[in-house]
Amino acid sequence: MLKKVAILGSTGSIGIQSLAVCRAMGYRITALTANRSVDLLEEQVRAFRPSYAVLADESAAQELARRLADLPVKVLGGEKGVCQVAALPENDIVLNAVVGIAGLRPTVAALEAGRDLALANKESLVAGGRLVTDLARKKRARILPVDSEHSAIFQCLGGFEGRNPPHKLLLTASGGPFFGKTREELQQVSALDALAHPNWEMGAKITIDSATLMNKGLEVIEAVRLFGVPPERIEIIVQRESIIHSAVEFADGSVIAQMGVPDMKIPIQYALTYPKRLPCEVPRLSLTEIGRLTFYKPDCETFECLGACLEAIRRDGLYPALVNGANEQAVKLFLAGKISFLQIGVLVRRVLNEINCAKEHYDLEDVFQVDRMARDFVLREAAK
Ligand SMILES: NC(=O)C1=CN([C@@H]2O[C@H](COP(=O)(O)OP(=O)(O)OC[C@H]3O[C@@H](n4cnc5c(N)ncnc54)[C@H](OP(=O)(O)O)[C@@H]3O)[C@@H](O)[C@H]2O)C=CC1
Ligand SMILES: CC(=O)[C@@H](O)[C@H](O)COP(=O)(O)O
Ligand SMILES: [Mn+2]
């Protein structure tokens, strides 16, 4: 079937690769969205001819509308516009590749409308927690993981049809550009150093998260939500080459791993074509060329963000939203040259130690309130 796909965050790293996959599959694009990348979104609209184009930034949306006046495309603005196109009844699937908690309302909008969701935006699942998974269940909408590790686990489990529950998840990590470094050595690292990921080309925010190991912490939380496995049965394994994308251990001790070249087109395509596997435009994996795969334990003490995320998911509830919000703000400050690399971890750890957000029953507005509290905390502390 030639699917109809909405791509949220189409101007980013995942968004651009998703469009390439959709073109190769011959899928129709219903809507494209971004924040304020007017030039690239205009180019994408002219190439893919969606019915809707949205910019979250209202004034950028006005500029886009002016530029696209010659085309039969509806141009919308604001977060409302993004949510509106996420919920279109004609969407067979919505691919959410927005970065950060800005993806949460669109995730909710797509699921509320009963649309299947190919989810790259891990922050919406981390911060929204059970609100997101419960909604998907209630609306019978499926969440198809795009994040490479979660796609790997999903594949090892046999997709939604898998018969055997996992005994344990083996979540792999590259270790990032600073693998093996001491805190002393990390004191002077720059944003440029942190942006040099050894294996993956990605947007700036997730690349910094990989360098701090926050990304792995977010991914543990994402795995708990997607696969219902408690955090103590998720082992993080540093797999330096990013060839094994993750693995599952079953009751009999058998371990099934998913491998491939580190190219996001594979998990993006699998989320869109599931349960089919179709040819994909990526280089083939040659294990003999790679020669050897290396494995290590992660260093949760040097990389404080990871320890903080594990603590947050053990506490559960709104704590994952708290560390996520603190991290988003801290990464912004680091990229702007306002705080050091190590301060990201210090602030994420401190927000957890100093803000109590224990609450058994919570709703979406509580999540956004905790997110704001975390950001304010980081801004206040960084300004001291
Ligand atoms: N890149 C990767 O390989 C992987 C990414 N992911 C996850 O996928 C998501 C996207 O990552 P990535 O593609 O790297 O990110 P990018 O920064 O490259 O792209 C982000 C996209 O989101 C849009 N956006 C930013 N802010 C807002 C906002 N406030 N409202 C609406 N749209 C917004 C951007 O628009 P604009 O261009 O206008 O700023 C852009 O289209 C993240 O959650 C990341 O963790 C997961 C696994 C791998
Ligand atoms: C491609 C992908 O899924 C990223 O999340 C990747 O895993 C980042 O690499 P790290 O393992 O270094 O966090
Ligand atoms: Mn990942």
Task: Looking at this protein, list some descriptive labels.
binds NADPH dihydro-nicotinamide-adenine-dinucleotide phosphate, binds manganese (II) ion, NADPH binding, 7-stranded parallel beta sheet, metal-binding, 1-deoxy-D-xylulose-5-phosphate reductoisomerase activity, alpha/beta, 15% strand, manganese, Rossmann fold, 5-stranded mixed beta sheet
Helicity range of the residues?
40-55%
| Main beta-sheet strand count, sense and barrel state | 7 strands, parallel
Strand count:
12
CATH-derived architecture of the domain at 4-141:
3-Layer(aba) Sandwich
Return the CATH class of the domain at 4-141: Alpha Beta
Q: In terms of structural class, how would the helical and strand content be classed? A: alpha/beta
- Average pLDDT, rounded to a whole number, is 98
Strand content: 5-15%
Low-confidence stretches: none
Task: Count the DSSP helices.
Answer: 18
Within CATH, the superfamily of the domain at 4-141 carries the name NAD(P)-binding Rossmann-like Domain
As a whole number of angstroms, the C-alpha radius of gyration is: 20 Å
The arrangement of helices and strands along the chain is: EHEHEHEHEHEHHEHEHHHHEEEHHEHHHH
- What fold name goes in the CATH topology slot of the domain at 4-141? Rossmann fold
Which ligands occur here?
NADPH dihydro-nicotinamide-adenine-dinucleotide phosphate, 1-deoxy-D-xylulose-5-phosphate, manganese (II) ion
Shape: globular
Family: Belongs to the DXR family.
Catalytic activity: 2-C-methyl-D-erythritol 4-phosphate + NADP(+) = 1-deoxy-D-xylulose 5-phosphate + NADPH + H(+)
Cofactor: Mg(2+); Mn(2+)
Protein name: 1-deoxy-D-xylulose 5-phosphate reductoisomerase
